[in-house]
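Need residues for this backbone.
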């Protein structure tokens, strides 16, 4: 029985079956093409880590906002500035507090800094929540710009 992917050829007068396979040259060509693609694509992907950090900070702020909304639903108010985001992790002694609903731990922004929480807020009646960005200081432009709860896209 002969497999579908075999060819017959004669060597020294004998018929032999040969399976089709990639040659070493063909494999090397594929590896070279993949290498060329990697050198073209990788720099474009690696030049965007700061953008990824900024997106992660915005997602973190949205998650914290959800936890704050649950906190207000349970307790009737947002945590004060002095209670801070720690109130979402450990019971500050408030009636209605539900320790299972909020956050497991207070997250840090992608640059390792604490999120800034002020309640009542200056930009919102309820609270302001922001990350100071890469430079860790209020203000800044481009990659150093703050990520602010009141300026996040809807």
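Answer:
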């Amino acid at each position: 029985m002969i497999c579908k992917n075999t060819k017959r050829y004669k060597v020294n007068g004998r018929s032999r079956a040969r399976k089709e396979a990639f040659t070493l040259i063909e494999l090397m060509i594929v590896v070279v093409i993949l290498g060329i693609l990697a050198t073209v694509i990788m720099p474009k992907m690696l030049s965007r880590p700061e953008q990824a950090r900024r997106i992660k900070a915005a997602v973190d702020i949205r998650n914290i906002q959800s936890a704050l909304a649950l906190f207000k639903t349970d307790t009737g108010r947002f945590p004060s500035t002095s209670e801070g985001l720690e109130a979402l992790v450990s019971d500050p002694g408030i009636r209605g507090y539900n320790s299972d609903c909020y956050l497991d731990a207070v997250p840090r922004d992608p640059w390792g800094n604490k999120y800034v929480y002020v309640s009542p807020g200056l930009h919102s009646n309820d609270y302001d929540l922001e990350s100071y960005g890469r430079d860790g200081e209020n203000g800044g432009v481009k990659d150093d710009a703050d990520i602010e709860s009141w300026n996040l896209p809807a």
